[in-house]
Amino acid sequence: MEFAAFADRAEEIEAESADTAITEAVTDLFTDAGSDLPTLARFVQGRVFPAYEARTLDIGPRLCYEAIARAAGQNISADDVEQRLADMGEIGAVAASYDLGGQQGLAAFGAGGGSDALTVAELDAELRDLAAVDGSGSQGTKVDILFGLFSRCSPTEASYLARLVLSEMRIGVGEGTVRDAVAAAFGVPVDAVERAVQVSNDYGMVAEVARDEGEAGLDTIRLEIGRPVQAMLAQAGTVAGALEDWDRAAVEWKYDGARVQVHFDGEDARLFSRNMEEVTDPLPEVVDTVESTLDAPAILDGEVVAVDADGEPLPFQEVLRRFRRKHDVAAARENVAVRLHAFDCLHADGEDLLDAPLETRHDRLESLFPPDSEIVSQMWLSDDAGGIEDLETEALDAEQEGIMLKDPTASYSPGKRGKHWRKRKPDVETLDCVVTGAEWGEGRRANALGSFELSVRTDDGYATVGNVATGITDAELDDLTERFEAHIRSEDGRDVTLDPAIVFEVGYEEIQASQSYDSGYALRFPRFISVREDKTPEDADSLERVKRLAASQ
Ligand code: ATP
Prior knowledge:
By secondary structure, the chain is an alpha+beta fold.
């Protein structure tokens, strides 16, 4: 398929507002996709790589503006593009507003008919090449490749290329739409598609199997060691609620660390964070422990906690710091050690266990380690509220966050925040907010950002809930300024608009209804707690959660 045809379809999809009409349009796109089906199943969601890869194109907005400016002509600079973005508000519209070459090239020979027409397959290959560019001069090479692509684009193509490159596709197509469209296009049950995606984390592959091999083919998709699945998540809950819904609750400590998925192929262990990023190198102790203890292939789910020289737990930010300090692990290791607490087993020795009840999965987990191994998180089965509360006190005394209550009969549902796992932590709730703007400091601090605009997810973007400046040291501000510089979209005096990229965990005293922010809510006395290195903007809290929290105050 030519990329121009995809861009036209994307424009049609974007113009629809009803969910059913969007699903139908995506269904038609998949039916007509031919060999481009896997690529299109990713492109409609604004993805170039499957969800199991943390890989991105790693193109900052500035690189993209430079490429657009070069394709637009001699007198246009990246600053001009940025200025136009500040006026128009959306990069696709900006890219479409310039003569990037497609018009002179293609239209002159009859649109779409020129031999130079960019195809979906070619674009996919070029973007993958671009992602692989590394080393000195890589930024220049990336701009060159992008410039080459934009110069072949009509306005509509340029619009969707810019959005794809900056991960801002936003045509109203989420995972649910793609799942339903794959089912409708190839006559397979929605459940079978959902299951296959949970297991493989790859919509492109699932769409192709659904088309070529039907439901029977989807049923054969298995977990693969080295390909992380999405983590099962928890809701907030109470002991009474859990005991009302289940005969017995499985109770575990809620460790104060970072989620890690362990993939052991029989020889080597690889580790992945909650957002699928590989964190094998930053956690060598965990790799050593797993490799020296396990003797058959396995996929485990667990929490990594940091401890001091006496084995006492340290705040979870210490683990996240390791994730960032990939180059200086040896030094980090001297001060802070990390330990794995494995609490689930998704695969053991050739057998997928996602569908097995938690109790069975936990038995299997125990069987992989020596008796009483400290690596296996202890799980108690109880129907006694008092006993469970005692366990919670023990967990808090051990400086962990609280307890997890799990339905012992439930299967493992990747990516689901359902009722089968509930968390109880007595601390005041915190919010994970996407930083969408900032303000430069004043006087002595004029070269550093000093305050940050906080937003939560909505159905079609982000809505602001406040600004945070409290709780951040000058050293942290300098570090944050350096990190945010790559994500600056535009500036107006001291005000900076940022591309959504970094997630802050913030505390607050209360959530108030307020017209000062576009969410309709404001955080009272927000304070910075940490950067959630393990979360992407998609994992940030939603407006729905803010509403629920406000209602429960
Ligand atoms: P939080 O900010 O509370 O950690 P979250 O959004 O990261 O929440 P949730 O699904 O809401 O994730 O809460 C469960 C989290 O608790 C898991 O992601 C995991 O990192 C952590 N955790 C600690 N101990 C356990 C355990 N025994 N079982 C499951 N998850 C655990």
